[in-house]
Amino acid sequence: MPYVGVGAQKASTSLTGTPMVKAYIAIAASLVVVICITAIGVHHSERKFNKYNKVSIDDIHQSDARTIQDNIKSENIKKYLRIFTKDPHIAGTDANKKVAYAIASAWSEAGLEDVHTLPYEVLLSYPDFENPNSVVIKKSSGDEVFRSKGVSPVIIPDEQSGKYAGHQWLAYAGNGSASAEVVYVNRGNANDFKNLKLMGVEVKGKIALMRYGHGFRGDKVYKAQQAGAIGAILFSDTSDVAQDGVESEHVYPKTIWMPNEAVQRGSLMHGDGDPLSPHYPSKKELFKGRTIDEAKEESVLPSIPVLPVSYTTALQILKRMSGRPAPSDWQGLVGGNLTYKLGPGFLNGEKLTINVHSELKTKRIRNVIGYIRGSEEPDRYIMLGNHFDAWVYGSIDPNSGTAVLAEVARAMMQTINETSWRPARTIVFNAWDAEEFGLIGSTEFVEEFVDVLQKRAVVYINMDCIQGNASLHVDTVPILEHIAIEAAKHVPNPSKRERDRGRKTVYDTWMKVFPDKKAGVPKVRVPGGGSDHAPFLNFAGVPVINFNYKNYSTFDTYPLYHTMYETPFTNIHLMDTEDLGVHRAIGQYWAELAKTFADEVILPMNTTHLATIMIRSYLPQLKASISGINVSRTDFEDIRTQYALLSKSAQDLLTMSKKFQETMQFTQHSFSQNPYDPKHVNAVNERLISTERCFINPRGVSKHNPSARHVLFSVSDSDSYSNSLMAGIQNAIDGYESSPSKKNLQEIINQISIVQYSVICVVNTLRDVI
Ligand SMILES: *[C@@H]1O[C@H](CO)[C@@H](O)[C@H](O)[C@H]1NC(C)=O
Ligand SMILES: *[C@@H]1O[C@H](CO)[C@@H](O)[C@H](O)[C@H]1NC(C)=O
Ligand SMILES: *[C@@H]1O[C@H](CO)[C@@H](O)[C@H](O)[C@H]1NC(C)=O
Ligand SMILES: *[C@@H]1O[C@H](CO)[C@@H](O)[C@H](O)[C@H]1NC(C)=O
Ligand SMILES: *[C@@H]1O[C@H](CO)[C@@H](O)[C@H](O)[C@H]1NC(C)=O
Ligand SMILES: *[C@@H]1O[C@H](CO)[C@@H](O)[C@H](O)[C@H]1NC(C)=O
Ligand SMILES: *[C@@H]1O[C@H](CO)[C@@H](O)[C@H](O)[C@H]1NC(C)=O
């Protein structure tokens, strides 16, 4: 482990090793002492780390970590999985309330402290369960030639016989019917709409038919509505979800591929959190800042009816379409050799109608929270989280994660009960509600506790669901990249096949499947949206790690995603067939990370890496965007001058970080001779923990989305699943390009300066004096 057992130096030495005149050193040192005593020192005057030298801390860390890992058992994960996935449990329903209480009772039984629920009243959406949605095709004579059932069939009765499990719907879809010609818009992303227009096909007044994949469904529908569509249909293409063919021997339940009447459900909200309470928590006693009409006017919620369909239903539409053939990269495999056409409309004068029954309802949701109090620094939180609400049974998304998290909690408590281990910092367990509707439970929580989190949260580690069995996959911020990679080296490989090939750890397979060949490490990116880590990073500036296991392919997700066939059979017999070994490995990695953050004396946060990535990657990307702006030479010089200043600040950050880190390494070496000084350690950790917060601009970085406040990382406006870098600058560039004016030019410079300001904030945070 990189930073294990870092000791202290005397408070009279500078933290960063910056050469300074003596007087400054004395002032700095005494400031540190004062701060530490008032803040934390009183409560934690004695630390158990004092008793050990570096080597033994290492050993103890590893042996306790191994014990926790060994205590994580597949049979328990299986048991939890069955409990949490017994019934369909959509957020806001009684069935989901039961799951919340089942989680709370599992955690309490294991011995977590202060287990309780945190309620919010939020706007959710439901279909009419007595009256399924439908796609209807009629001849010009009025005779019906096709009507979809709107309900997927039960395939494994033991697990799927819950009431209303099969309903095919999308949350927040507009209520009503639409009859119009259909047009095909490929994946429904910005380029697709642009290209369709170039090909002379108008979306206005039509029903947009779009394929799932390569982007968030809510963004597709948002763009369709903006383009004037009066309805939309989303379908799963067999080229994505049934790659070996649609015959029964090639699909579920024989394989993991999607069967012919399955559909992907999901939310269409364009934005995160309760649509009626932007920036503030939806507590019963607080006022809601937005009305439903406003949410629709602002396109947070769609107004048009939208429906998800199976590839079998999609075939009924695609085979009837008239118009030019779609471009080759818009073609899929529905109907085998069928050529997809652009429309508009059908051959033979047939007419399409979609009927969507959809209702908005304010409902109570509940997050579940529980603690293992830290013995040394109880006010520093290592937060682990997963959501528990599902579209149907949710045994992959999200309850593979819920079951694993419950087992991590249990295994940690077992270790505490049976050994002398207890984490030094507090580990907080979080089960979020209503994530599926738009990260609602976690967003409301972060909005409610943002100040406390900014003071206490060290890291938020998210695992939504297992998506495949090929490899670990991790997204994180630069300061945590090294530790996220290091932890994987301590987790045994769950795959026999991989072990047989000499790849002993999860890291070894990760490196093979997702390598960053140039850097010689696994590929790690900054997470976008799509799960509960987003509000922690983007709104509160809490560094996050988001991880899972997935297949080799870069396709968004797994074929049975959000279908009613996500029941334990799929986990046990299709996806993770070696006794849930992948589920277990996921738990072991989660526990390993949690324990590392909880117990390492100096927090494993690498600011040098942040500086390096800025210089090597972020700034060149920014430079490229700037060079592409169509401006006069003198205006360009003004932008470039500010860019150069930002670049210099990044260099300052690199220099400062290296000094800061050298000091830590120096202390590491001399630890066994030097008495350990908790005040020094506290001061170092205080600075490390503050660095990510520097990037939070309370004024926000995007006019469209004021809850995006991180100046480096935001959820992308065009695809909520991905990350966009320095969105404030990018938005300013876009603003200038659509309306070139002096004011808009200055806004670009201003936004570059805001990023620079944040970088200087980190430099100042690491420095001894200000
Ligand atoms: C597609 O066309 C090829 C040759 O044209 C044919 O061999 C194949 O059977 C067709 N597949 C389907 C599913 O129709
Ligand atoms: C949905 O629309 C139908 C008619 O199109 C109407 O009867 C029904 O009341 C509406 N439901 C809601 C919840 O608005
Ligand atoms: C740990 O001990 C507590 C207190 O005796 C008990 O309630 C809890 O069930 C134990 N947990 C485990 C996982 O053994
Ligand atoms: C997993 O990835 C492999 C390699 O890209 C691909 O052949 C296979 O179809 C994928 N399976 C699933 C279920 O995505
Ligand atoms: C891994 O997943 C694939 C489907 O993507 C499945 O065919 C295979 O059996 C699984 N392997 C294990 C060991 O679970
Ligand atoms: C921190 O990051 C720098 C730059 O990438 C790297 O050289 C160094 O080894 C890292 N330190 C640790 C402890 O991971
Ligand atoms: C650049 O801007 C000028 C006027 O400001 C305009 O005439 C020219 O067409 C633009 N070039 C491009 C490539 O957009």
TrEMBL record:
Its EC number is 3.4.17.21. One of its GO terms (cellular component) is membrane. It catalyses: Release of an unsubstituted, C-terminal glutamyl residue, typically from Ac-Asp-Glu or folylpoly-gamma-glutamates. Pfam families: PA, Peptidase_M28, TFR_dimer. Its main location: membrane. Its cofactor is Zn(2+). Keywords: Carboxypeptidase, Glycoprotein, Hydrolase, Membrane, Metal-binding, Metalloprotease, Protease, Signal-anchor, Transmembrane, Transmembrane helix, Zinc. Belongs to the peptidase M28 family. M28B subfamily. This is Glutamate carboxypeptidase 2 homolog. It comes from Caenorhabditis remanei (Caenorhabditis vulgaris).
